[in-house]
Design a protein that fits this description.
The chain has about 900 residues and is α+β, with helices and mostly antiparallel strands. The protein has 20 helices and 45 strands.
């Protein structure tokens, strides 16, 4: 038996008490006027109210907990019976209520005063009092996780994965072949997600191992970087005492120059089938099989080019060691032709050509004496699949530096074709450029036109996970690539309008409509929307039918009108807030697009969307009322919510038991697939009280350093922080997330913190979008500039430049400089459709307030911003400081 006291500052006139996993044995009113009888009470007048409850607690089999709910009143809430503790009462100031043990006779005001005297702070309050986060601070506190790198020519699924000795090489889906990965440097041909099979290995994968230097020792001495810190040309330096080995690697073709006209690519259906988790309809599978039969042998394959230069930095002669590539560390029979420098499986199956100092490599292993200040050069060229001796002779004749320069020009050309961003923090600028190319590398399809698969690491495209990549491409002016990526979802749409491409996920239809709506906001491409309108309406009608089957009275407040189904990897076929939220925002964006084409239809869609939103919100409010409140760091308690309507509270609190550990965390479903999405999906306003509760309890229960566990970019709270003007919490999340998840040298992202799935461009896409929001973010008719930048970016002599970046208001250019006690800015927007208002945040590096504004606008000192009303398309301003 548990006796509990519920104390209100000014109690509700009436209400009811429910007990889950237990029974209410009695209740009585011990303060206030009125009567409590059975499971209900009614009061008379206003003022303090206190109830004493007696509950029999009967924990359910499977781990459920006794949960008390106070309902049928203006501010309903629930709490675990075991949490009622006199030393740490459940204190909810927004509700004007406290819950404690029956023996605690304090009034609400006395409890409030006792907690106030402790001077406690929430985690977010502590972050607000700290210095702004930086990469240096975040990297010192988080994991350093080097990641394998992917290289290719773009559009073509014939890519290569590589890593240097002793570095992580885990692949959850396909374990390393050869059994000795950590003893070597290695490179592996892939067909996108699939490690390329080899006939000589009974169709199983092959990984090619090689070595430069004396071998594995007690030191590391390894440094990697990308060419210009952005291009997919890898530079690796290994210091082996006085001999320094410098490797350069990239991917090109056998003899054809790497130029856009020579990139044929891979048909999108073939590429899709190479992605992990792909889903093809029967007709799509037949078409893919036909395309594979017709594909035949390509004229040329992709080739991994690597040159390792050993330099003697000492004062006496020293030896350098090289070992040629070996398939599966010797696990596959092969021969080496020292006269030609060929490694081969058979007379006409050459898998590698190698040179030493420009001549064919004579022996697989060699030691070369190098004089002080001189160099020796070892090169190997690895075709994606073995080639004939005739082709091998042409391949070994290639000049490494010429091929490298072609590769550099190819990727530089891609970057020069869109917006340019220059930032005072080189790492972030470099990560933006590298990230754009990382994502483009796995956008597979045929050139120069046609559908592209917006793949995400080893996975095929997903309507939800591909979205941030497509949207960042839009922001950088790559609208054609974004459009071709969106076509994938239309081309693979089912006849009934359903969109599903990956692993049984059910959320892609709504997520795709949202993403194409974002594309339309950037481009206003009404002609294309008119062309694909029938497909968009099919998707909309599918969502309506899905919703209709859930409009049953038994689901009122518990999923009525919402969608049921699997949202991600876990098999959870419930009425998920994330799933229905994507349906709502997708329909909302569709209404926007239709407004310019068919006003009547747009109104109908808008009405359906708003009704769905109302149903989602009704179920959320009911779920929050019946979910347990939890404590925050300042002594207050706040309501929670489940990821779906069929459960009470966060799954990780086990109100109804269950086994919820997945993907490296107890919190995965709650923090990554939960109700926080409703803020991002525009169902809950980020500034309302429910948002306060969500952001606070997620931070304290489910985040560390304001970062979610496991697959952290599934959490949308950084966007919420920026919408709420919370810069320090945003920066805390921003830096700590990528510092621990992305390779700090090559900027390649893992999917998870436990090193699964390299080159995960979904995670990288959200990093890119978070940076985009940090630099510019729309809100209604206003364009908010620099809403989340660190203030150190505006230190003396620093500069920010956004050139021809794209927003919902068209392209714009922003230049900001900090010189001589002044912050100067110029803004130029596309004249066709600029914003009504510009809000430019210019935080002084020392937190000073400006003493004078010149150039127009209104200075808002509390927001450290200048507001430009009725913006005419161009402005120059200066803020002056003492």
């Amino acid at each position: 038996m548990k006796s509990i006291r519920v104390v209100w500052k000014s109690g509700p006139a009436a209400g009811r008490i429910e007990v889950m996993n237990g029974s209410l044995r009695g209740s009585r009113m011990i303060e206030g006027s009125g009567v409590a009888e059975g499971d209900s009470w009614s009061g008379h007048g206003e003022g303090p109210l206190a109830l004493e409850l007696a509950a029999e607690l009967l924990p359910a089999s499977g781990g459920g907990k006794p949960l008390v709910s106070i309902v049928n009143c203006p501010l309903p809430f629930s709490f675990f019976a075991e949490d009622a503790h006199p030393a740490y009462p459940i204190y909810m100031p927004d509700f004007g209520v406290a819950v404690t043990a029956a023996g605690d006779l304090r009034s609400y005001e006395e409890i409030e005063a006792d907690i106030g005297r402790r001077g406690l702070r929430t985690n977010l309050q502590k972050i607000a009092e700290e210095p702004e986060e930086s990469f240096e601070a975040a990297s010192a506190a988080t994991k350093n996780q080097p990641c394998p790198i992917w290289q290719g020519v773009g559009r073509d699924t014939r890519i290569f994965e590589s890593q240097v000795r002793g570095r992580p090489s885990n692949n959850f889906w396909n374990p390393p072949v050869g059994g000795s990965a950590l003893q070597w440097d290695w490179v592996q041909p892939r067909q996108h997600a699939n490690e390329a099979g080899l006939p000589e290995n009974v169709g199983q994968p092959v990984r090619y191992y090689y070595m430069a230097g004396r071998g594995m020792g007690c030191t590391d001495g390894i440094v990697r970087r990308l060419e210009d810190n952005a291009l997919p040309i890898l530079h690796t330096t290994i210091a082996d005492d006085e001999i320094v080995y410098t490797a350069v690697s990239f991917v090109s073709y056998e003899t054809r120059p790497l130029v856009p006209d020579n990139v044929d690519g891979t048909h999108y259906l073939i590429a899709d089938g190479y992605g992990f988790g792909h889903m093809l309809t029967e007709s799509q599978a037949k078409e893919r099989a036909r395309l594979l039969q017709e594909e035949g042998q390509a004229v040329e394959t992709t080739v991994y080019y690597c040159r390792i230069t050993a330099e003697n930095t000492g004062s006496v002669p020293r030896y350098a060691w090289f070992k040629n590539i070996v398939p599966n560390a010797g696990g596959i029979p092969y021969t080496f032709d020292g006269d030609a420098g060929f490694a081969q499986y058979g007379a006409d199956r050459v898998f590698g050509v190698s040179k030493l100092n420009g001549q064919p490599l004579r022996a697989e292993e060699t030691a070369v004496l190098i004089m002080p200040g001189e160099q020796a050069s070892f090169e190997f060229y690895l075709p994606h699949e073995p080639v004939s001796r005739e082709r091998a002779f042409k391949l070994i004749a290639q000049h490494f530096q010429t091929r490298c320069e072609d590769c550099r020009a190819f990727w530089e050309g891609k970057l020069s074709g869109g917006a340019q961003i220059r930032l005072p923090e080189p790492r972030i600028e470099q990560m933006l450029r590298a990230g754009l190319l990382h994502t483009d590398l796995v956008f597979y399809g045929q050139e120069p036109k046609g559908t592209l698969v917006p793949a995400i690491g080893i996975y095929t495209a997903i309507g939800s996970e591909s979205s941030p990549i497509i949207q960042f491409m839009n922001a950088m002016g790559w609208s054609d690539t974004a459009k071709r990526g969106l076509r994938f979802f239309l081309d693979k749409q089912h006849e009934n309008g359903f969109i599903q491409n990956f692993g049984g996920y059910m959320l892609e239809t709504g997520a795709f409509l949202w993403c194409i709506g974002e594309y339309y906001r950037y481009t206003r491409d009404a002609d294309w929307i008119r062309e694909i309108k029938p497909k968009l309406l099919k998707a909309y009608e599918y969502l309506l039918e899905w919703r209709k089957r859930n409009e049953t009275e038994s689901l009122r407040g518990r999923g009525y009108g919402m969608l049921e189904g699997k949202t991600a990897d876990p098999e959870d076929p419930f009425h998920s807030f994330m799933l229905s939220g994507y349906a709502y925002i997708g329909m909302s964006r569709l209404a926007e697009m239709m407004a310019d084409l068919d006003a009547g239809l747009a109104g109908q869609i808008r009405g359906d969307a708003e009704r769905l939103k109302a149903d989602i919100r009704a179920s959320f409010d009911e779920a929050a009322a019946r979910s347990p409140v939890v404590p925050l760091g300042d002594g207050t308690w706040v309501p929670t919510a489940p990821p779906w309507t069929e459960y009470r509270g966060p799954l990780s609190l086990y109100a109804e038991g269950g086994n919820w550990y997945t993907h490296g965390s107890f919190l995965s479903r709650d923090s990554m697939l939960g109700p926080m999405y409703l803020l991002f999906q525009e169902v809950i306003d980020p500034r309302e009280r429910a948002a306060d509760y969500l952001i606070h309890y997620h931070n304290e229960l489910m985040f560390t350093r304001n970062v979610a566990f496991s697959q952290p970019y599934y959490s949308t709270h950084p966007w919420v922080h920026l919408k709420r003007g919370e810069v320090k919490p945003f920066l805390k999340a921003y830096y700590n997330t990528f510092a621990g998840l992305a390779d700090r040298e090559t900027y390649t992202f893992w999917e998870h913190y436990y090193q699964v799935s390299p080159h995960k461009t979904h995670e990288e896409g959200w990093f890119l979008m978070q940076t985009r929001w940090m630099l510019f973010m729309e809100e209604g008719p206003a364009l908010k500039l620099l809403p989340g930048i660190p203030r150190k970016w505006l230190e003396q002599g620093k500069r920010i430049e956004l050139q021809n970046v794209c927003s919902y208001f068209g392209s714009f250019t922003l230049r900001v400089t900090s010189e001589g006690g002044r912050l100067s800015a110029s803004i130029a927007c596309s004249p066709e459709r600029g914003p009504e208002t510009v809000l430019l945040r210019l935080p002084h590096p020392e937190g000073k307030r400006a003493i004078r504004l010149s150039g127009g606008g209104v200075y808002l000192p509390e927001e450290e911003s200048v507001r430009l009303e009725t913006f005419g398309g161009y402005a120059e301003i200066e803020l002056h400081f003492e």
